[in-house]
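Job type: complex structure
Entries:
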Amino acid sequence: MLKVEHLTKRFGGNVAVNDVSTTVERGKINAIIGPNGAGKTTFFNLISGVHKPTSGTLTFEGRDITTLRTDEVARLRISRTFQATTLFDMATVLDNLIVGHRLRTRSGLWDVLVGSNRLKEEERICREKARDALDFVGLSHVENRVAGDITQEQRKRVAFALALATEPTLLLLDEPAGGVNPEETWGLADLIRKMVKSGLTVCLIEHKMDMIMSLADKILVLSYGEKIAEGTPAEIRSNPAVIDAYLGAEHADV
Amino acid sequence: MEVLLQQILNGLTLGGTYSLVALGLTLVYGILHVPNFAHGAFYMVGAFVSYQLMSALGLNYWVAMAGSALVVAVLAALAERLVFHPLRHHEGLHPMIAAIGLMLFLEAGAQALWGADFRRMSTPYEGIVNIFGATAPVQRLLIVAGAFSLMLALHLFLTRTTTGSSIMAMAQNREGASLMGIDATRVAMLTFGISGVLAAVAATLYSPIGLVFPAMGNLVITKAFVIIILGGMGSVPGAILGGLIIGFAEAFGAFYISTDYQDIVAFVLLVVILSLRPEGLFKQGAR
Amino acid sequence: MQMLEGRLGWALLFAAGLLFPFVTGNDYHLTVMTTAYIYIIATMGLNLITGYTGQFNLAHAGFMAVGAYTVGILTVDHQVPFWIAFVAAGVVTVALGVPLGWVSLRLKGHYFSIFTLCVGYIMYLVIEKWESLTHGTVGIIGIPAPSPIGPLEFESPMSLYYLVFVFLCIGMWVMRRVVNSLLGRTFMAIRNGDELAEALGINLARNKLVAFLISVLYAGWAGALYAGFVRFLGPDLAGAHHTFDMTMFMLIGGLGTLLGPLLGGILMPWLTQYMQFLQEYRFVVFGPLLILLVIFVPHGIVGSYLVRKARRASESESQAAAAPESGKAQETPRA
């Protein structure tokens, strides 16, 4: 689905991502792990168009997306969440989500000025999609709560809902379980499985090993910007290079 | 040749003054990530206090300068405590608006206290000196000497003393610095105080060849912003270099093109540079 | 309170505006109010780009001056009829806004504000120095009143009041549409976070520019009305202090709310009127007021009310969600 070939990103003298090649498999849960500073978020940023790669190519569904802007990538149905969930705290949860479907609408200033039917219809659709997304993540009951009042775990779900409202085919989740307790983590993991079951492809960055090992179909391991391993959870678990990267050379024999 | 020397001196004079002002601004921006729009008002208050100390109390030029530096340092530290400290967690717009409110208050206050008239500040150094055929008013030489000595002193303070290093540490990473036991609030107030000193000294140095009036800080502050954007927000060498660039550009621009549009030089430069490089001339990381 | 919102509230405001001249019967008050309305129109524009889209445009007064001077120059120096000059004011302002907006909106946060501060200053200087076009510091005098439309003449304070009032209503109506629409939501998404907005597929450059152009159009036409109302202009109109005044209106009323500019734009001038002695030094009071507002009442009057309303609705929601269980527990024993 997404082919990454020799992706490299240099910031001045610092190489954040170094010649990484991999594929994100359709309909699967792909995970990216690695110690801090491994370049995982930069990797996401390269895919979603926040940075332009120094070299390498990105091909999505046969289409070259290497130099596209973030909003163009989103329109091609690659959606992402961020480590820090920013929501508009003063507005209701539903209000936050309505703009999620905006990119699939075409109304502009003219429609607003004349109050066109297209605008009315599109606003109705956006609201509907917002409700659908909220329902999917199981939070319909907080629709009218002010976004600043909900819990951290609920915020994470709302962030998912926002990404879902854009109707993606590939969803990039950056630390979806960040700041969430173990019980809630399982809930989020179930939600991710539900997303994949409904036809989405997910690629996530996470530090919580238990979650990754039981959730992921395929794992990519990065360290210092380089790919050091790739495979199923079982393969990764026993890979000495991976253990080395996380714990240091002395533990490689464990 | 003399003409060229003349313009170089003018460039150094303007540049030195601008650098001092920009230094204060960049230090504050580096720590707080807030553009202190009131910095020009500090400059103006510095000039007025010196003026009052000299004319009303008959103090000596240098004593007045020291007194003014002290007053503005306290004023600036107070501003940090009362205005910027409460806003340190707020998003971008609010601290800017508060800074503007402070600026407006100080300007209106100065006008209420001392009136809107233009004043001339006197100086004991009215003479002229001859350097390689160029006429150099002593005051201008004084400005250049004073400005660069102060910059050197600041550089030594920031790099050689513990307090100075803690300021630099905070500019790099506020949370990290406080984890290391550096009192963020104290350092913030100190930084503001230093910026006040720089502004007051710059104002007192420059005023004898300019005019003193409540709105005098407006132009200076806008140019100071241009300088720190060119030199990099939070960069000390950048502020000095930027100040000199603008100073020379203005001096030569005023002489060879037109005095009417002298003030525009800095802004046109900013518009051109930011149009081509939205991040500024030197990337400063976070902003 | 609930009753006053929605259609009824707006109708009441409209009626209040219509009746104002009869309540006061004083030409001076009419003039104050008309000037207030003109600045409110400009402030609504500033509120769109700053309050709703999150870009603090410090050159806003400059654009207002551009609109005013377009009318002044065309009517006085070239005998162009007022209403044609009025339309031209809008065109010129937007035409200027396109390149300026395009260049400046690439800048983020503080850089944008500093950049626009400088642009505003350049605009002021250009108006002051370009004497052949703008009459320099002397300014433009003898601008004609708006030309009659049919039987309606605009020479008296009352007729001018109603003319400006009509523009205010239209401006408010359009702004309400924009802000409540998907386009308005797009702007707010940009304000809440560039990165997230882009990740949601929003084209930042294009949308910021649209917001910017609408905002300067409001400023330009407010300026044009100013020219026809006050009938003389000076470079001072482009001064940053006008932008600061408008910022104050927005803050007091509520940044990013519809009624904010209206409330602030009416409250402040009238407050200043009653403190006439303060006129010159109004910022001795308003400066600290701005600071206190930003620290303690950052949402302004209207904003705080809206926040409290949303909070209360949110709390009753969560209570209602908890209630059904207790309700059920009571039901069963009866059966």
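Summary: Confidence is low (pLDDT under 50) at residues 249-254 of chain A. The interface with chain C takes residues 48, 50, 69-71, 74-75, 79-82, 86-88, 90-92, 98-100, 102-105, 107-109, 111-113, 115, 119, 122-123, 126, 141-142, 144-146, 149, 162-163, 166 of chain A (CB under 8 Å).
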